[in-house]
Amino acid sequence: MSTAALMSRRKGINQRFNLWILERVRQKRGSPELPFNLEYRHIYVMPTMFGFWFGILLALTAIGGLNFNNNMVLMLGFLLASIAQLTSLLAYRNLFGMTLLGFRATPVFAGQAARFTVLLKNPEERLRFAIQLVSRESSDCMDIKQQSTGRLELELMTTRRGWIEMEPFRIENRYPLGLFRAWSVIIPKARCLVYPAPVPHPPPLPKTGRGDFGTARKGEGEHLHGLREYQQGDPLGRIAWRTSARQQILYSKIMETPCEEACELNWYLLWGLRTEEKLSILTAWILRAEHQQIPYSLEMPAVALPTGLGEDHREACLEILALFEK
Amino acid sequence: MTSPSQKATWWVIASLFVAMAPQLVTMPIPLLIMTLLPLMWRIGAEIRGWKPLPALVRHGATVLALLTLYFSYGSIAGRRAAISLLTVMLALKLIESYRIRDARLILSFSLFLCTTQFMFHQGILMPFYGVITIIMVLVTLTQLHRNEAFFKLDATPLVRVSLFSELGFSLRLLILAIPVGLAFFLFFPRWVTPLWGIPEAMLDAKSGLSDSMSPGSIQNLFMDDSPAFRVMFDGRIPRPSDLYWRGPVFWDFNGQTWRGGFYGKSLGVASQPDENEAQWKYTVQLEPNERHWLFSLDYPATRPRHSRITIDFQILRRQPVTQLLQYSMVSDPVFVDSPELGVTLQNSALDLPVDSNPRTRKLIEGWKHEGLDGQAMVRRVLTYFNTEEFRYSLDSPLLGRHPVDEFLFDTRLGYCEHYASAFAVMMRMADIPSRIVTGYQGGWYNEVGQYLLVRQSDAHAWSEVWFPDQGWTRVDPTAAVSPSRIARGSLGALSAPRHLLDYTWLRSFRNGGDIVQQRWNDWVIKFSADGQARMFSSFGLERLTPSMLVATLFVVIGLFSFLLLPFILRVKGPDKKDPLRVVWLKFLKRLKTAGFETLPSSGPIELAHSAAIQLPGDSRSIHHIATLYSRSRYSGTPPPLRQLKDAIKGFHPKKNTD
């Protein structure tokens, strides 16, 4: 059997084992109540592949030592076995008493990786070395100091808009020698909002509305916005001579144009396209309008939002798009 | 792929080097170079950032190393050769190891390599070698573990682990592991008989006296200061001139080399001394030499286990001695060995190659014409050695076709084997049956340990001649030339130091220090199924079955764990070094029992405010304590701790019933 085949087979066994454990946890424990304290019955300990290999080597050493009654070989072998056994306890102890405080996730666009932040607290007066979070797709690792909280991140690729559930993951560690792995399976109750993926090249913004208010566009215009220190390249006509004379430093005037534009992002404008395409275009429009600081309103079949601009408005609009018909 | 950090790579290289060091010392030079080259290359690659070698070069190096190995050892069947193979392969593995998996493979094999070295040496220094190797491997493994855990992160880990703490951690791990390791060592069922032995062909670490003697063979041993065996006497200790430790006996001489005769090895002894009349009772602790001979004083009255006694009183063990071996002996010096000797044996003790050493033959013929024979001839030859210009020396020149002639008439310079050989040849020329006995002579008596230490440098050769009714009689021609060799030992006989560090005081220091090694042998190396049984019988437990031993093992481990586990798994309480914090935590606990939940984020004053609102009845004392605490903690002139302690002692908040 080739090495690659052996590896994939090993992976298969590993995966099946992990699935089996996950199923057991799902049946016995389910999702944990937060905050969740890792206790004796939540932690599994098993040798790693390296641990197994090490054990085989030790067994061979012991057999040789017993056969020839070579006491030094036996002493060394038994000592190493004792050390190995001790590290299984240490791996367990490194996890024991950790508290899972909660999960957090900020919305992402479909096609991006959803990032779940996991808050892990170490309530005790000892350092936790190299605590790892491992999910199907990603992993993270961190030392968590005495009486402090670590934020670890797990990523999950998204493909469709809507809610995405966080996948089960393991809190694990192979401290201190990598001979044993202690781990606990967590089935989290956490989800992340996925916005539709914006189309890369949307049609131009439908600038049909009139903005009643909005942030002025800086740079050009007739209205004075403010002063700033002179920078090379500022036209001479912009220099605020009177202020500069008073302050002994050159100042330039910054001008602005009050915003007059606005756009109406309307579901019904996009006829003839499929739902997902429409949502992607609307998403791209919202992003572009935010980028250009043009106020926008959103009208959808069942709901409409008035003209607005800013983080909150954007998130409200995107959430409507993300959960449309879901 | 996950690769170890450079620091960890250094440690891998260092651990491997330490583990292979004892093996390196024994390697032939070409092979040593082949082993060190990959190591050097890897070090250079780490410093200079060399690219990995192409596969062709690596495979070429492997083939070259295998060829070097084969030609250095002649075969790869021996144990040294097999372990050298492992060593070379591990060194070669270094040049293609860029992954954590490879590093771990090298480390685990380093530990294995370390254990294999105990097959050859079990000296008192070996445990140190073992412990150093273990510590280094443990340090490296902790580093690799961190490398593996953090390999995905670009940022350095939050906690930087110093080398000092890594070393401390490894040492602690080792010490904590000792109780359970010791329990395994003492109670794990031992095998009474081995399942398999080492094939004779694999024994390649033979030391000490060999099965032949040619000029120079014992001289080489003179340079070797390692112990051959130790003897504990029960009762009277023989005089130094009686301490002839009998080993291989040689009958056949081909002009250059003495070998053990066919009859000497195959015939069993006809009669042995009576055990009850024997004078000397002693126990020998023989260091492993991978040979069959057991040593005893003349003439052994008993037979050690698993061995036989030949007609010339060699004690041959069935298996070669690969472990420290202890046997008890009784010897009777006044016994007469073979008062009658068969014709065949007589002939084989008289046989000489024809046409050799004509000058010696002439000398003996001349003496024979003078009418000398028997005892008189022996005396004449000894007088000849004593009165002529013979010198006892290590720097004997090489001898040619007629070695005895050249020795007797030209060089007159030699070590004990020259004299013994010349004497035996002269006796045979005078028709007196003679043979060569090799072994050890003398020893160093350790007054503290009350045992006799015999080193390889005490190796000696002497002759025996046979006369009717008197049997075989020991004649030591060396004593005629250099009486001090017998009286003061081999080292006293020569005035010049053997090597650079050969001082008398160092020698006596080494001899005295040997007691540590002797105790180590006694307590650790000798331990076996027998020792296990004896250990239990001293507690009144006889005949423990393996399952009972395992049960004992688990009970003992359970006991240890019971004592140790709370220590290992303890949850650290508040820092005892900070009394202020201890007192403050007490206060928080009281608040908690009163129903006030504290947030870890709030400071003392902020906490006091919200606590005072929830527990209005105790608001005054709460504020008082919080102010005291923050003053004690932060002010330049803190109030005495006593004050805060008392305030908290008297603080018993009433439970909020709202």
Quick gist of this model?
The complex is a heterodimer of chains A (326) and B (658). By secondary structure, chain A is an alpha+beta fold. Chain A has helices at residues 3-28, 49-67, 71-95, 241-247, 275-292, 311-322; strands at 36-37, 44-47, 99-105, 108-109, 113-122, 128-134, 139-144, 148-157, 162-165, 169-173, 180-186, 191-195, 209-210, 217-219, 223-229, 251-257, 261-266, 296-299, 304-308.
Question: What do you see in this structure?
Answer:
The complex is a heterodimer of chains A (326) and B (658). Chain A has 326 residues and is α+β, with helices and mostly antiparallel strands. Helix content of chain A is 33%, strand content 32%. Chain A has a five-stranded antiparallel beta sheet. Chain A has a four-stranded antiparallel beta sheet with strand order 1-3-5-8, with no helix packed on it. In chain A, strand 6 and strand 7 (139-144) form a beta hairpin. The radius of gyration of chain A is 30 Å and the shape is elongated. Among the domains of chain B are: 6-161, no CATH class; 579-649, no CATH class. Chain B contains 23 helices and 18 strands. In chain B, the strands form five sheets. Chain B has a five-stranded antiparallel beta sheet, with helices on one face. Chain B has a five-stranded antiparallel beta sheet with strand order 8-3-14-17-18. Chain B has a three-stranded antiparallel beta sheet with strand order 1-5-4, with no helix packed on it. Chain B is elongated and about 135 Å long. At the A-B interface, helix 2, helix 3, strand 6 and strand 7 of A face helix 5, helix 6 and helix 7 of B.
Main beta sheet of chain B, described?
A: 5 strands, antiparallel
Radius of gyration of chain A: 30 Å
Would you state the CATH class of the largest domain in chain A? Mainly Beta
Number of helices of chain A: 6
Proportion of residues in helical segments of chain A: 25-40%
> Total domains of chain A, how many?
4
How much of the sequence lies in strands of chain B comes to 5-15%
**How are the strands of the biggest sheet of chain B laid out side by side?**
11-6-2-16-15
Examine the secondary-structure arrangement and name the CATH architecture of the largest domain in chain A. Answer: Sandwich
Number of helices of chain B: 23
Q: Tell me the strand order in the biggest sheet of chain A.
A: 2-11-10-6-7
Mean pLDDT of chain B, to the nearest integer, reads 84
Structural class of chain B: alpha+beta
| Class by alpha and beta content of chain A | alpha+beta
Overall geometry of chain A comes to elongated
- Spell the H/E element sequence of chain A: HEEHHEEEEEEEEEEEEEHEEHEEH
Number of strands of chain A: 19
Mean pLDDT of chain A: 84
